[in-house]
Automatic annotation (TrEMBL):
InterPro entries: Dimeric_a/b-barrel, Rham/fucose_mutarotase
Entry's Gene Ontology molecular function annotations: L-rhamnose mutarotase activity
Keyword Isomerase: yes
UniProt EC number: 5.1.3.32
The protein's name: L-rhamnose mutarotase
EC class name: isomerase
Keywords (A to Z) from UniProt: Isomerase
Length: 116
């Protein structure tokens, strides 16, 4: 009998909104994230992250060791803050993002994809 414990993980979803007309620009920009951001996310306990797009709604599905720990680490990480600054022009924060939907749309990014 295997007694090795698997560390706990959390999987959660959330949505963000794109500015209308920026969908294709965002997909091209986000196709590969910087290697430094990938390393920061892994250090924060991210195990998986997918982004799907339906219209201007982005649905993020994240698997992490701990959501709270991930958020705490990434909020203080300079590489992540720089990335958030770079991605901000594509996002629409003027209206509330909807709740995640079962039809999240096409996969446009996966954490397992190559970095740049």
């Amino acid at each position: 009998m295997d007694t090795e414990q698997v560390p706990p993980t959390e999987t959660f979803t959330f949505t963000t909104l794109l500015r209308a007309g920026r969908e294709q620009d965002y997909e091209r920009f986000h196709r590969a994230i910087p290697a430094e951001l990938d390393a920061a996310m892994r250090a924060a306990g991210v195990l998986g992250w997918q982004i799907r797009r339906q219209g201007t709604t982005l649905t993020h599905e994240v698997t992490a060791r701990s959501r709270a720990r991930m958020n705490l680490i990434l909020e203080g990480d300079e590489v992540n803050r720089a990335w958030q600054h770079e991605v901000a022009p594509f996002l629409d924060s003027s209206r509330p993002a909807p709740a995640p939907d079962a039809d999240a749309g096409a996969l446009i990014w996966d954490f397992s994809w190559p970095t740049r």
